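User: I'm writing a tutorial on reading structure tokens. Could you give me a worked example: one chain, its sequence, then its tokens, then a sentence or two explaining what the tokens reveal?
Assistant: Sure. Here is the example chain.
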Amino acid sequence: MTTLRHAAEEFLAQPRIAVAGVSRDSKQPANLIYRRLRDSHHKVYAVNPNAEEVEGDRSYATVSEIAGGVDGVVVVTTPEAAEGVMVDCVNAGVPRVWLHRGIGPGSISEHAIAYGREHGLSVIAGGCPNMFGATSDPGHRCMLAMLKLTRKIPRDVAA
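And here are its predicted structure tokens:
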């Protein structure tokens, strides 16, 4: 086991990150995550099977379509869609996946978590990249504290 903070730092240290669930609606949480990663000098890829372009960048229908692969994927979809994204990540050889969760249920799917871990992926099941490191902001750091108090975020992550 490793702490959530350590797992988040390790995830965010990766140069090539995809965000599954980026929308044509720039007000969506996935879009904010995408912009923050892009602005913090990651090579970031948008994944949305229903859009050719989001946030002014090309969008990929699946993680598997991204040439050269990625080091990690942030999943900001429904739990049901997260299961398909996790299968795609396993097939694409992605080593780490972050299932987003803020105040609501987020992308958490017990089936997706189990499937990813059974296939050797490092899976962060909850929280948001914008709660840590260069992508963080005061509002997200307050939300992190609240989610820890209410135990709606993992304290540790299975390595």
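What the tokens reveal: DSSP finds five helices and nine strands in the chain. Residues 101 and 126 are 5 Å apart (CA to CA).
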